[in-house]
Amino acid sequence: MFKSWSSTGAVVVLGLAAPLSAELNVPIAARVVSFLQPPPSGTIAAAILFEPGNAASEAEASAIERSIGSGLAAGRSAIRARRLAVGAMGSLNGYNIAFVTTGLRAEQGGIAAAAAKSSVLTISSDPACVQASRCVVGITSTPKTQITVNRAAARAANIRFGSAFLMLVKEI
Amino acid sequence: MVAPLRIHSLRTILTIGAALSPAAAFAQAVDYQALQATVGEPVTTSVTGTPQRASELPASATIITRDEIARSPARDVPGLLKTLAGIDVNRWTAGQTDVAVRGGVQTYNARLLVLVDGRQVYLDHYGMTDWNLLGVQLEEIQQIELVRGPANALYGFNAASGVVNIVTRRGGSTPSVTATAEAGDHGTSKLAASVLLPVTRAIGVKLAAGRTRADERAIPATLLRPERVFDVAGDQVSGDVDGTFGAVQVSLGAGHATNRQVEYLPSQLLSNQDYSSDTVHGTVTRDTAWGGLTLNGYVNWLDAEYGVGAGPGATDPIEYRNRIIVAQASSLVRLDTANTLRLGVEYRNNRLESDYQFAQRISYDVASANAMLDLRPVERVSFTVAGRLDRLWLHQSGAIVQPAFDDPAAFDRAFTRFSFNAALLIRTGGDGMLRINGGRGYQLPSLVNFGIRLPIITPAPVPIFIAGSPRIDPVTVWSGEVGYTHPLGAIKLEATAFATWTKDAIASPGDGLQTEFFLTPPPALVARFRAVGDYTSYGVELAASGTLARLTWRANYSWTHTDDRLPPTTLPIPYALAPQETTPVHKANLALGYEIGPVTLGGVARYTAATRQLAFSPTPQLLSYRVADAVALDARAGYRVTRAFELFVAGENLALAHGAAVSPIPADRRVRAGARLAL
Question: Which of A1, A5, A163, A165 to mutate against chain B (most B CBs within 10 Å)?
């Protein structure tokens, strides 16, 4: 069972900045979150996992942060995010989703273990993370939007998506 | 007691047409808006019953999006469909429109199933669609899905040539209002609005209403017409409540619609009709770890008056009261990450009450079971096969009108039909896709086809009746097609070759009145609806679309050849069915859209080859009238005063091509202006 979402009633400001092609398409990621079952409500706590000193990782973390701003709508709920250095992520307890930035391949095993333990949905723009069953969702935007869901990673984290959504995306 | 009619009013009232009964509709709890926004292209469930991307459909299908609807010069759903490849839209009158897919043009087209959110709006009494009685506003539509070719394995008896599924917007987390007010020449006016309101986090409400008016076109003196001709009037109101409770979604709704207009009946006589329809519907879906379950039910009522204002001395209008009850259950099973199984059952009860039929009530029950298997054995190949078994029990009850021309026991009849569809998709290099698909479907005789009994007055020494037949069989439709889609940079290219075989097509008696003679008591002649022959349609559809900077464009060409083995159209014309001469051989469309700042411009040029269409002369005699080829121009210009408020002017048939309506009644030019609010 996906853990319950906290509800803060915070005012949500929609930030739909268009992502760069190499970065995570955050608006699409937010829509993916809205297809979770049961549907999330209230505020969704998101961690932006990055590696300090890794330029690519920091750049993507900044881009995700900008896209989310002070809050990003995801169905009837809203995502609020903050950066979290991968070395300090602990068990990811208290988070509902985690954006896994690029450049963390060496850390993906630990991230997957923490996410599974705390039922955290991991989303990445790195297809390898999903292929390796380290991340639950992978999103690429070129040449067209391609969403990949790793069934094993989802099961490990007790994450379930609506069946209509799963029939439209690539599930591996 | 049946009052006699004059021959013209009889025909007016008459009806004589083919029809089929409605097909199954599927509950649709899919959030199309959210899915489209997520995967970056429209999503539909109309082809297989499962959600699929528009670019990966195992059938020839087109999706018209909400944005395209907003920018189009069209004022109704047929106006949006008429620019698509393989589609014939006949504007017989200002109000009456028929849409045909890949040939078979006729009035009261019984071969295209029309649904709103999976619920049939197709009218079963005659097996036809009144596009002004859909009970849906353009303002509330999320997308319009067209599937070409038989889709009976999914939808049952009525999808013999294709399906149009109109998907409306559902209540979301934010309130929304879309409204249009417009007026133009020829008495054209429209007020329409749709409101989405979130009531709680889990419950949303949708309200929609519309009012349309338009004057009838000028009817030439060479055509028979009723003494009085209705202008077009339509009023509609509907409401829906949607709730999401964990993995369960519930939707309840109701609607009421009325429509008055003059129409060509299947007999090709012009007649004023007055329709009133009501509907209630409900759907429950539950998403599960393995797929989903859907329960769906609805009841549609129709009160139809035929031959209103036919002229002095005519009888009262002929009234039909139709009620249909449909209950459906389906289960979607994801067998693994790539393969899907869909199972469904359905029951429907359909009844027609009138004084002008064999007995007071003609009805049938249909029990159905269907299955669909979608397999992807390898990454580039998918195979879909679907089958459906329908068992129909025909009945009559109530007082039998005398003299009776059939044994009442003939109505205690049952038959079984099996429909199927199959499709193979192969993804080729460079994102191309080859599609090979086909199937067999059935067009069910309408309740009128089974049971009508209408007296007409002629100079003949014995009375003549138009009658249905309880022995009439469903029309068999086979189809096959090969399609190829390929992107070329920003341009999407599509080519499809198709063939459709229609066996034992049902037709209305025409002017020849081929009759049966009954001696007792008293002597009478009976002209029946009957299966009159076969016809074949085959052709090619070519389409391309793309964007060029701010310009969006879409072009298509359709070549349709029809070869019929039907009674001839030499005088006197025995049956009002002649698809070979009524279907245009060549059609071409070019649609352009341009947006710069607050200004949006859209235009459509349509070429339709010359045809011949059937209609009665004032004598009255059923004749074949030539309709000239036409290049019609439609256009729309909009100016956004604010982000949410737009002023616009739009026009149809600006070049005043008389053949643009593909009707014996020449098309006119109509221009309108208005305002659109989208909050």
Answer: A163
